């Protein structure tokens, strides 16, 4: 997940922070974007690698909710 975060966002995260960000964004999508959440669940067959899951979540956030994504990664960019 941390690799996908770096590739998509140019933000270096450790494994724990990447997982926290993934769950934070997935929760946001589940609660606020049912269509995107449905697409994520359709693609998640249980065999996808963590980085692929993170890429799917980041792709949805970048396309549909860029401002929320910016706010979510802000604490990690300030710490750098």
From TrEMBL:
It comes from the Bacteria. This is Uncharacterized protein. The lineage of its organism: Bacteria, Pseudomonadati, Bacteroidota, Cytophagia, Cytophagales.
């Amino acid at each position: 997940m941390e690799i996908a975060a770096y590739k998509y966002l140019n933000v270096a995260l450790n494994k724990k922070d990447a997982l926290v960000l993934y769950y934070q964004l997935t929760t946001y999508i589940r609660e606020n974007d049912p269509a995107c959440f449905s697409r994520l669940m359709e693609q998640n067959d249980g065999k996808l690698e963590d980085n692929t899951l993170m890429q799917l979540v980041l792709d949805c956030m970048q396309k549909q909710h860029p401002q929320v994504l910016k706010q979510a990664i802000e604490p990690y960019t300030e710490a750098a």
